Each structure stands twice: as structure tokens, then as C-alpha cells.
Automatic annotation (TrEMBL), chains A, B:
Residue positions binding substrate: 29, 263, 354, 381, 463, 471, 475, 522
Reactions that this protein is recorded to catalyse: D-sedoheptulose 7-phosphate + D-glyceraldehyde 3-phosphate = aldehydo-D-ribose 5-phosphate + D-xylulose 5-phosphate
Cofactor note: Binds 1 Mg(2+) ion per subunit. Can also utilize other divalent metal cations, such as Ca(2+), Mn(2+) and Co(2+). Binds 1 thiamine pyrophosphate per subunit. During the reaction, the substrate forms a covalent intermediate with the cofactor.
GO MF annotation, one: metal ion binding
Record-listed Mg(2+) binding positions: 157, 187, 189
One Pfam family this sequence matches: Transketolase_N
Protein family according to the UniProt entry: Belongs to the transketolase family.
InterPro entries named among the record's database cross-references: THDP-binding, Transketo_C/PFOR_II, Transketolase-like_C_2, Transketolase-like_Pyr-bd, Transketolase_bac-like, Transketolase_BS, Transketolase_CS, Transketolase_fam
UniProt source species: Penicillium hordei
Function, as annotated: Catalyzes the transfer of a two-carbon ketol group from a ketose donor to an aldose acceptor, via a covalent intermediate with the cofactor thiamine pyrophosphate.
Assembly mode: Homodimer.
Protein name (Swiss-Prot/TrEMBL): Transketolase
Transketolase-like pyrimidine-binding domain mapped to chain residues: 351-527
Length: 679, 679
């Protein structure tokens, strides 16, 4: 409390930096930073963080869900002394700067999560708050409040309209996340103008319906004490997340204040001048703002210091937990965890890969305490819950605890994916979440941000093809594998048997900066002769090696064993020798040496690909493609496979056509390319 | 009112049919049909429909958003006399039946929209209700209430958790859709069991916050009069959509009633027997149910008859509107509408394709009154609003009218896409909606249902590549074109200039059973020499024809003109002749004769593809691919293009590498394939 002219100067400094940076870039969104500067100033001076170490484990988290307003965040990071210089601000939205058009966590120190696509940051913040609750549940001991940070999040009308934020808000209410404080920039403006044209609901009442505590600050432009009081009240409410509706004026200070004109366009030159004049702005004074902010930053550094001492004491008194937490914070996996992954012999029984995935989770959850599983209300179908798993729930519900490692996401696929991004960003958790592969598409917006922001999340995507049978075309993915394979920095595994499934888990867990989608079957799969953990970890390998083969059949997942039967069929019925190759993960296979890849798909032999999904993308590995470029069908799965000819006979027919077509033509392996793609 | 034993028999008949069909299929969801049979019985006997003509324009619409409970709907359709026999019920979930695992509108008479993926039906129903309001606004006259039907929708806890349903509910509240009545099956069970594990919000309060009228029927299992009274009350509320919370027992009658065990699995044999015994079920009596239901169906037929007479009179008194409506209901487009599409000469100025799209909308909206445009809060960026467009809004807001043809979807991409599916399903509207291409991904779940259920919706997807510049990687699509090209029955157009954009509109509007994604630029594009409406409508054509070419460069959209510059550069700097091909739409090009496609991409010349997005999918048309298999960058767009070498020089370098690599090798056109894919 007791705000002075210096506070007002700080606020106006943030506003003017936002005006200048967007003007210089001739691009960007000045309105939100100008409107939210007051609350940002008050809040950041209440938050615990250390600009010298943006990774301090117990720092308060800040998420700007309305990421287009990122000049607000860049200005704060700069003024508080993060590694973000005035030149970085001048390079706003310029090529290869650390101040891109929307905040990117992997680019810029002090950015917790990548935001901009609306609603994502909201759900990320819920994930960060869950991660705090969980980490506190696991590690806190009497006298050792190692984890007690808050997660603060700003969101605007756009985020409030997005379904993903609704899902996440409902979830946060259910989970009673008292450590989450969301501040709603109620400025009545979105890109199309006044929100009265599309968004007239009672947002406060909706959040109360979700089980949130709410506050309303009516003059968010000027009432600094009111803002602080509201935040303090929310901090006192420990059994509910809090939402502060903050009524502000977008573009405060501009001639266009309170209109859509200031939302997504820089101010005109005279307007920018006017803002500075209005604020009586004298650049010299801004050094005082540095002093003010650096003083708070120094307090943050001291708080981290205290925390480090506490943690040292903790490690002495609670050796096991201390060592475990130190390891997790360092980003290292436990020594030898991978030895627990199941290994199979070809004589082992056929089993669905969703069950094989369950066996992996069952085997490793004990040695990998950072693994936190869950499902979007398909637990029994996704097989994501190990025996004796404890649910992550507020303890007073009597159905779980904060330290629980199984999350009931509800039927909220998009929020699940974004919450997992938040869980992963917190730094102590490896999240895995299940739904049907077809419904990972609901989460496409969040998964692309997992990939872009380089976080390790695992999508356990079961029922991965027409093989799910009776549920029919509404549930049978066709385009989905191609979609996620096309996404940069996303690993798509489609294992064919037990060893390949274990390899998928090994890859997913050791890929620290990459999300993984595991496409898993509902139906049983036999164990392959030549599959081993090692071969599968090359992403692709020879599953049936036949001398003098006339064709190579390349496949994934449930179709590999049918391709192997086809090879036998070709030999027995047609006297034709065929090789079979399994490529459970394109991305991993592509990373092998060209020499190895040419061994797997050699020159001189035409290649036929087989996958019971769309053929797109297979041209990279095959000359001819057999797939399904139409929607599936509802029926028992064997009948559906037969209808579309994914049978030994159907594959053989196409293999013979392929051999015939390339007869007498010199065949170059698809691995041979003229140049390297831009990766 | 005055319900008798016969009503109870009807209800129990529905329940038993659901039990028997799921048992016979050994698959499916008996629980929801058993719990919702009472409300279905009451409601359907209040609804106006004619089983003899499921397409009657003013029928009440029914949407089962919890589509997994489709045995409820199939039983009703059968009992009321739609073309769905008892044998069809026995074939539930069997191959090639009209009773698939989830309801598919194009398969089954009486199904309005394809549901199953949770939340979709909710938003579809909002679209259907909007379409009624709009059609009434356009056509109703004093004495001629041509359009006054209700839209009824059932939804469960799963739908209530989905973000898309939240978006659509907020939108329906804003729009005051008094013609929409949603019935919430409050049975406290989802697949993971009791909803208390994940979903504890106050749903009624949330809907009130959206501006809905709400009712609660506490005994949805037995209180038929209460159900009817609640529905009648909601019918009286004309300025708000209504939600009836109906507390029911899932699997009513089963030993597992009220548990998750009855949600997604058929009943055990003894339990099924027990249900029949409990209900004192005597199959003979079910004929009485037919009689009861057929009597109501006959009333529906009579109502349609009355409506047809009213419509005849309307056509006489309101000739213009009558003829227009008759045409729209027949599915025909106005004679010669396509002549309004703009045509360009190569000397016309360069212009962004989002502006070219605007020019199309401006040119055709007058002659095509069924076209209803809109945007997810990006109107000024998507250029989706023609001058003088009137907003679709409740009239009392003073910012539009029901007859308005511009929809303010708010920042609700997923709901927008599903609402458009509902608008299209109503039968009088062609919907177009805008957002950035990158955020069509938020709507992937709905777009796949557009494709599956074969509806004509148009996604105006602007800012289609790294060419959007400063907004950066969070907003720059990479995988998106591949994703939607991989989706069956979805047309993806990426026009390179004005004539190609007009072709895209021609194609989208004449594709009655296919959705279209139009990928449009933010940046200006020159008009191409050889582009014409006719050539573009072949999906692919020769844009630069050069004799004795050493390479063909194939491209789309904004990269075509750069490829043409590259061809000049190759000639001038290297004396190399290059052809250039533009393929604005893969799906349309694939539908041309092989002869034509081989003319465009002939044997003997290696092909290099160029597109500033991921390369996946281009292997179908090219030997070598130049694209971007990584995320983009924030910066002025020309610098971003230069960074990734999408320049005449960058393309030429790769063209030369391609020529070199295929030197001395007999080159087969990628069009030549060994066999036809399964389409």
C-alpha cells in the first residue's frame, strides 16, 4: 500500500515502452499493456522471483494468457533485471530476437509458458498450479514449506470465450486450487470491437459456478490500493482458485483508449507523442523505475537464498526425498530406470498395445516418481492407471490427495493437453494423459504448443485406427497420424508389439524437449520375431529379412504383423520373396544415419507401405502406398479390416502390383534425396 | 399430460430395445438410452415431424449430443415409422448397416447431424437454432410463420465438460435463442465413474451466467408430467435458450443402474432378462407402442401438409421470397451466380488473397442470399464482411437483426466450425467463417465431422503461412495444410492469385457435400499470366510452360509467383529451362483424368515442390520437396521468407540440385502409380 508518484511513473514507463516498441516494429498490440500496466506493476511487486535465476523452483509463476500483450511482459522482465536488454525491446518482433510477436518460453528468460493462441495460457496456469499442489503434497514436511508458490495469470475477453479456458476453469474449481489467482482484463474490447457484439455473459457468475472465489476491482486503471487489496484477499482464500475481474481501459492514455483501434495496431505518431505528454514523461526518470524494480528483484534473490538454505536443511533431514527432489530439479532421470521396461519374446502371447502401455506404466511408475498419469475420462479404455495409483484430488474430497499421481481430467481433451504443458513447465513432473487418438485432435492447439515450446508430455492415444471397430467412423482416426507427423518436434510412435511399446516409452521419457503421441491399439498384437528394444529405438528396422526380395513392405503398429503374414502368403502362393520393415517412429528413424536407413530400405527393391490410415506422408519411405484415404466403418474390427482389404491377401495383391510396376525400372531407395529439408 | 400404462410401456420398450441391440452387438452404450427413455418419450410426442418426409423444412430438430446413446434415437426412429426397420436395429453397429456405433446424418433418415465426439452436437444444435431464427427473419411474413420450429438437444456430463459446448452455450445465450431447448442428462456418471471425481461445478448456475433460462426436473425417471411441464415452460420463454437439468438414473432397470458399469458395456445376459422381467415385458404389447407412436407421426404428416399449403399460399402472395425459398430448399444455386465472380488480368495489381476473397464475397453475396458469413473475432483481418453487411443479432440489442447475414462468432473457433455444421444441416444456408489458418486447428474436431457428414461449410483461413510475419511461430501454420489435406472429403484451396481465388469460391459453393478450407495470405500476390478460372478449376495447371524444360517446379499460393521468378532466374543465371505448375487444390487436381495430370506433370522431367509449410504430402506430386519442417520465426515477412530461403535464389539452388540428382536416371512422373488408393 502507500503508492506514490514513483509507482505511477513505473506504470507509465511500462505503457510508454509498449507504445514505443510496437511503433518501432510497426506491428503489435499496445492496448493490453497500456491497460494492464497498473495491475502488472502492483502484482509483480508482490511476487517472489529472482531475475538472476529464472529457474528457482519455488518462484511465483506468471502467465500472460492474452499473449499478444507480451510487450507488457517484456517491459517487466527488462525493468526487473532479467536478461532482456533495452536493445531486445527495440528488436521487438524482429527476426531472431528474444522478443518475438508472442511470448515463447524456450526463447526468453522469465517466460514460463508459450502463449498467444488464446486460452492456452489459462490452461497452462492451471497446470502450473496443479504442479505446485502436487510438489507440495509430495515434498513439503513440517517446517519445510518447499513448495508454496502462487500461480498468477492474466487473461482477456478472448481467452474467456475460448472453450479450452472454460474446461480448465471448471477443472481448477473442482480441484480447489487455492494457489491460483487469475486476473481478468475486463476491458470490453476484442478485435471485432465492443464485446457486446458477441460476449455478453456474466463471467463472474460463471466462475462462481465453477467453484471459484471472485473479486471485482472497478477502477483497474487507477485504484492501485484496490488491486493490491483484492490480490491479498485472494491469497487468503486457500480452498478455491480466485478470479479478479479488473475493469480497465484498453490503450489507457491513447486517443483511441477504450476502442478496438488500439488493440492490434501501433499508435499513430501523434498519438504516441500525446501519450508521453499526457504522462509528463521524462525518460531520465525511468532510471528511478529501474531502482524501484531492482530493489524488489533483490528481495526475490534473497528469498531464493533463504529457500536454498531451507532446501539444504531439508536434504539433510529428509535424505530420500531431498535427493529425489534434487535429482528431479536437475532434470536427470533415475539411474537405470529403463531396466524396468518390459521385454518380450516372440513366443509371448498377443496383447493390445494399450495393455502393453499399461504394463510399461506399471513397471516404471515406482522408479520414476515424476511420472504423473491421467485420462480424459477414458481410464478403463486408455489403461493409463497403474494398480494402486492414488488420484490427484483435494484431500477433503476423500477420493485422493495432492501427492496423488493420477489425474482425472474429465472429458476435457484440449485442457488436458494444455494442463500437461503447464505441469511439464513447472519442472518436477513428466505428465502422461490418455484419450482416443481421434480426440487428441481436439487438443491440436495445445499439442502444437508442446512442440513449439519443447516440453516433454506424453499423449497415450489409444484406439488408434479402424481397429477400434464398432464405435465407427466418428471415432476412427484417418488423418490423425499424418497431422501429428507433420507437426515439427513431435514424436509419433505407433508400436507393433511389446518391445516397440517399451521403446516408445524409453524414447518419450528420455526426449526432454519433445512431446510424444503414442498411437496404441484396442485389439491384440502378436510379439514379433525380430523386434527388440534396440532395433525399435532406431525408429525403423527390418522385421523380416528375406534374401533376394522382390519387394519391401513397410508398415507400423497393428499392420506390421499382417504385413508379415502377407510376406508368408506371397512366398507360399506366389513364390515371391518379400522383406518387411517396421517403422514405429518416423522422427526417430529420420534421425538415423543415411547408411543405416539405406540398409533398412535399400536401393533396387520397390517399397510398398501399409497403414490403415491415410497414406499421406508415406511417400517419404515407399514407392507405392496402401492406406485408407476415406472414412472408416462401424462393425466388428476384423470385418472392418477385411472390408478395406487390410489382410494378407489384400496386401499381397498390392505388393504384386508394385513389383510388376517397377519391373525393369532401376529402383532408387526413397531414402536417396537430392538435398536436405529445412529442419 | 394424463400419462397411462401405455406411455410406461413405450418407455420400457425403448429401454428393452436398447438392451437387446447392444447385447446382440456385444457392443454399445445401453445406460443413456435406459435413463433418457422417459424424456425422449415425452418430448418426441410433443415434437412436430413427419417420418414420411424427414426433410420437411419446418420440422422440429432433435440432436443427441451424447451420441453414444444412439440406440435411444434408433429405437425412436423405428417406433415412429421412419425408414429404419427392426432388422436395422438388429444390425446395430454391424458393417454397412444404417445403425452405426454413433449417429451419422448421411447414413440414417431422421438423424439431423452426426454426433458422438462429445460437445459437437451441442454446438450443432446452436447452429440449427440460429438457422431457424435466420430463416424466420428472412422469410416469415404476417400470417406466414413459415419457420417456427424448435431445436431440442440432449446432452450429458461429457458434453457439459467439453469446451466446444461452453463456447456454443455462451454464444446461444448472447443470441437469446428462444427456440433452443437443451436437456441435460444429469446422471452423475461418466466413463470414469461418479462425476464427483472430475466435474463438481454448478451447471445450472453456469448456464444462467450465459443468459439461459433453466429448469430442474428432479425425478427424470418417473415424473412424466413434470418433464412435460418443464418443456412447456421453456417453450414459453422466447428470449432465452433453455436448459432443463433432468436428474436421471443411468441404466434404469439394470442391476448396475446408477453406475459406470452400465455406461459403455452391454448388460450381462441375466441382467438383461431381469430388466425385461422388472418391466413385465411382453413383446406382443409392443405393437400398441407402434400404434401410439404412429398416431403421433400421422399428426406430424398432417402438420407438414398444412405447412405445404401455407407455403403454396406464400409463394402466391410473396412471389420473390417464395421462389427464392423454393430454390434454396431444392438445393439449387441461382442461375448464373458464378458470372459475378471477379476475373483478373495479369496486369491487375498485386493484392493479398484475403482481399481477393473479400472481393468474391462482395461480388456474390447479392446473388447468393443463402451465403452467411462471419468470423471468430478477426473480421478486419479475415476480410469476411462485405460492405453494408448486417449482423445476425437478436433485434432488441440494436446492433443487427435475425435476417442479418454476418455472424459475430466471438473467439470461439471450435464452436464456430460446429455451429456452421448446424447452419448447413438446416438446409437454407451456406455458411462461411473466418479465422487464421493456424486456429482452424482449434476446430479440427468439428471440421472432421463436416467432412464425414458431408456438409458444405467454408473456412476462410487467412494468414496462411510464415508470410504473416511478426505474429511469429505461435501463429504461423506449418502442419496445418497437410492435416486438412489428409482429411478425407475436405477441399483445401490455397490460391495463388485472383482467378485462383475466384475458382476456390466456385468450387466451395458448388461442392454441396464437401467442406472447404481456403488458405489465404496476409501479403500481396501478383496476378499470374496463365491463371484463368477454367485452368484453376482443374485444381492444377501449367503456370509457366517452357519447351525442353529440365525441371518442373510445382507450388501453391504465395510461393507460385516466387517459383515463377525462380524460373526466370534459372534461365537468366544458369541457362536452365524450368516449367512452373500451380496446384491450388490437391483434391480437385486428383479428380482430373490421368491424361491431364500427366500433361501437367509429364514423365521425363524431375519435379521440385515448393511450399512454405511442411513438405508432407508433396511427395505425391514431386520427386524433391522444398518446405519448412520446423517452426517459423517472428519478423517482417520478407525477412522471414529470406531466412528460410523461399526466394528465387533459394528455389533455384534446389532446382539445380534436383536436376543434378536425376541426371541420367529415367524419370517417371509421380502421377504414374501402380494401383489406385482406397478412397
Amino acid at each position: 500500500m502507500g503508492y506514490t508518484d514513483l509507482d505511477q511513473l513505473a506504470i507509465n514507463t511500462i505503457r510508454v515502452l509498449a507504445v514505443d516498441a510496437t511503433s518501432k516494429a510497426n506491428s503489435g498490440h499496445p492496448g493490453a499493456p497500456m491497460g494492464m500496466a497498473p495491475v502488472a506493476h502492483v502484482l509483480w511487486n508482490m511476487m517472489n522471483f529472482n531475475p538472476q535465476n529464472p529457474d528457482w523452483a519455488n518462484r511465483d509463476r506468471f502467465v500472460l494468457s492474452n499473449g499478444h500483450g507480451c510487450m507488457l511482459q517484456y517491459a517487466l522482465l527488462h525493468l526487473f533485471g532479467y536478461k532482456l536488454t533495452i536493445d531486445d525491446l527495440k528488436n521487438f518482433r524482429q527476426l531472431d530476437s528474444i522478443t518475438p510477436g508472442h511470448p515463447e518460453a524456450h526463447d526468453t528468460p522469465g517466460i514460463e509458458v508459450t502463449t498467444g493462441p488464446l486460452g492456452q495460457g489459462f490452461a497452462n496456469a492451471v497446470g502450473l498450479a496443479m504442479a505446485q499442489a502436487h510438489s507440495g503434497g509430495v515434498y513439503n514436511k513440517p517446517g519445510f514449506e518447499l513448495f508454496n508458490n502462487y500461480t498468477y495469470m492474466f487473461f482477456g475477453d478472448g481467452c474467456a470465450m475460448e472453450g479450452i479456458a472454460s474446461e480448465a476453469a471448471s477443472m481448477a474449481g473442482h480441484l480447489k486450487l487455492g494457489n491460483l489467482i487469475a486476473i481478468y482484463d475486463d476491458n470490453h474490447i476484442s478485435i471485432d470491437g465492443d464485446t457486446k457484439c458477441a460476449f455478453t455473459e456474466d463471467v463472474t457468475k460463471r466462475f462462481e459456478a465453477y467453484g471459484w472465489h471472485t473479486e471485482w476491482v472497478k477502477d483497474g486503471d487507477n485504484d492501485l490500493a484496490g488491486i493490491e487489496a483484492a490480490i491479498r484477499k485472494c491469497q487468503q482464500v486457500t480452498d478455491k482458485p480466485s478470479m479478479i475481474k479488473l475493469t480497465t481501459t484498453i490503450g489507457f492514455g491513447s486517443k483511441l483508449a477504450g476502442t478496438g483501434g488500439v488493440h492490434g495496431n501501433p499508435l499513430k505518431a501523434d498519438d504516441a507523442q500525446g501519450v508521453k505528454k499526457l504522462f509528463g514523461f521524462n525518460p531520465e526518470e525511468s532510471f528511478a523505475v529501474y531502482d524501484l524494480y531492482h530493489k524488489h528483484a533483490a528481495q526475490g534473490a534473497a528469498k531464493e537464498q533463504e529457500w536454498n538454505q531451507l532446501f539444504q536443511k531439508y536434504q539433510a533431514e529428509h535424505k530420500t526425498e531431498g535427493a529425489d527432489l534434487a535429482r528431479r530439479l536437475s532434470g536427470k532421470l533415475p539411474e537405470g530406470w529403463e531396466k524396468k521396461l518390459p521385454v518380450y519374446k516372440s513366443t509371448d502371447p498377443a496383447i493390445a498395445s494399450r495393455k502393453l502401455s499399461e504394463a510399461c506404466l506399471e513397471a516404471i511408475h515406482d522408479v520414476l516418481p515424476e511420472l504423473v498419469s491421467g485420462s480424459a475420462d477414458l481410464t478403463g479404455s486408455n489403461n493409463t492407471r497403474w494398480k494402486n495409483a492414488v488420484d490427484f484430488q483435494p484431500p477433503d474430497l476423500g477420493i485422493g490427495e495432492w501427492a496423488g499421481r493420477y489425474i482425472r481430467y474429465g472429458v476435457r481433451e484440449h485442457a488436458m493437453a494444455a494442463v500437461m504443458n503447464g505441469l511439464a513447465a513447472y519442472g518436477t513432473i513428466i505428465p502422461a494423459g490418455g484419450t482416443f487418438l481421434n480426440f487428441v485432435s481436439y487438443a491440436a492447439g495445445a499439442l502444437r504448443l508442446s512442440a513449439l515450446s519443447r516440453v516433454r508430455v506424453i499423449h497415450v492415444a489409444t484406439h488408434d485406427s479402424i481397429g477400434l471397430g464398432e464405435d465407427g467412423p466418428t471415432h476412427q482416426p484417418i488423418e490423425t497420424l499424418a497431422h501429428f507427423r507433420a507437426l515439427p518436434n513431435c514424436m509419433v510412435w505407433r508400436p507393433a508389439d511389446g518391445n516397440e511399446t517399451s521403446a516408445a516409452y524409453y524414447s518419450a521419457i528420455t526426449s526432454k524437449h519433445t512431446p510424444t503421441v503414442m498411437a496404441l491399439t484396442r485389439q491384440n498384437l502378436p510379439q514379433l520375431e525380430l523386434s527388440t528394444l534396440e532395433s525399435a529405438l532406431k525408429g525403423g528396422y527390418v522385421a523380416v529379412d528375406t534374401p533376394n526380395a522382390a519387394v519391401t513392405i513397410v508398415s507400423t503398429g497393428s499392420e506390421v504383423s499382417i504385413a508379415i503374414e502377407a510376406a508368408t502368403y506371397l512366398q507360399e502362393k506366389h513364390g515371391v520373396a518379400a522383406r518387411v520393415v517396421s517403422i514405429p517412429c518416423f522422427e526417430v528413424f529420420d534421425a538415423q544415419t543415411k547408411e543405416y536407413r539405406l540398409q533398412v530400405l535399400p536401393d533396387g527393391i520397390p517399397v510398398l507401405s501399409v497403414e490403415a490410415c491415410c497414406t499421406m506422408g508415406w511417400e517419404r519411405y515407399s514407392h507405392e502406398q496402401f492406406g485408407l484415404n476415406r472414412f472408416g466403418a462401424s462393425g466388428p474390427y476384423k470385418e472392418v479390416y477385411a472390408k478395406f482389404e487390410f489382410t494378407p491377401e489384400g496386401i499381397s495383391k498390392r505388393a504384386l502390383a508394385t513389383i510388376d510396376f517397377y519391373k525393369g525400372v532401376p529402383v532408387r531407395s526413397p531414402i536417396n534425396r537430392a538435398f536436405q529439408q529445412i529442419l
